[in-house]
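Morning!

This is the sequence you dropped in the shared folder:
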Amino acid sequence: MDDMDGLGRSRRRFVGGTLGTLGVSALARPARAAGPTPPATEGPFYPAPAMRGADVDNDLVRVLGAVREAGGEVFVLRGRVLDGSGAPLAGRRIEIWQCDTNGKYLHAGDRQAIAFDAAFQGFGHDVTGPDGGYAFRTIKPVTYPGRAPHIHVKLFDGEREVLTTQFYIEGHPANGRDRIFRRLSRKEAQAVSMSFAATDAGEEAVVDVVV
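The structure's back. Tokens below.
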């Protein structure tokens, strides 16, 4: 697994600290699963370690050494990782990856004739805290050919992969045309849907992961 550099750890503390100061009423509605979070396909563009940049922290909007932030609508994705009884799971590595604001993935297999946004990490990770909490600063996902906007998610317990899933934008018109989203029951879709709310720190969505 990738280690966090000093700057990455600093940014994680900033994101976590900012979220910690907000009252529950100010946060987006959590997407809570009645049961385990539904799994989903990994897809063809999971970036192997060799494809990732040196900066793989939980702030995907600013790349170490870049002079500008990534294009797109920035928001904070946060939530908790819980077991089936609702107990928090600390020390779990959670990864996300998604296409940039142009619809391009950080992956050699994405052969679209468009440039990848060099200011966007495309991939990042966090490690859950004592309360099972995680947080990412990223951009709202956009449509990709044939797919509704989505964010890919992986969860690990040590070296063991526990879950691969995808998060969607609640109520997005493309959801009904997405072949993967359509396989979900209504409860499953609610469990992996992001609802955005304004906070003092900007827009935010809360999705809990249950395994």
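Headline: Strands lie at 74-82, 93-97, 123-127, 133-139, 150-157, 160-169, 193-194, 197-199, 202-206, 209-210.

More detail when I'm at my desk.
O.
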